[in-house]
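The record is given unchanged here:
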Amino acid sequence: MSLRVTFGIDPGLGGALAVLADGELQCILDMPTMPVGNYNEVDAGQLARYLREARQEHPGAYFSACLERVGARPGDGGTSAFRFGEGFGKVKSVLEVLGIPFVMPVPAQWKRYYGLIGKEKDESRQLALKRFPGAEHRMQRKKDHGRAEAALLALYHDNTDHAGRNAA
């Protein structure tokens, strides 16, 4: 039986959800999306189902999440920035509705912890592969950096959240 389950969430459409149980990577899922007109958006209902299933698999465990605090990027148009923020808001709302406590570090905060400031996104993937070698099949492509960052976010939270660790 797990004592502590930590979700790491990279909230973009190309992001992912990682699940750690007692510090060990259990699974990585791509951010669920659904088509809306001629574009995709975060599927909050599917995300909620994933999180509920994880809770059912670990009854009695302490659950928490680490959601990367994101903002509009330079060069994003208004519509793109709005959709990005809308997806972030959906993820945050799912965590709130399910009663899962979460922290929202900015990228510089968690990346500094790993020495990734100023590094290419593939450096995150390489670091995640070293820490979680059993997940190589889920992070083998350069474009899998969202999966890697979700795993690193969960591990960051697991290693720095003393209140959660003490509750477990």
Notes: Strands lie at 4-10, 16-21, 24-30, 33-36, 39-42, 62-67, 102-103. Residues 115 and 124 are 10 Å apart (CA to CA).
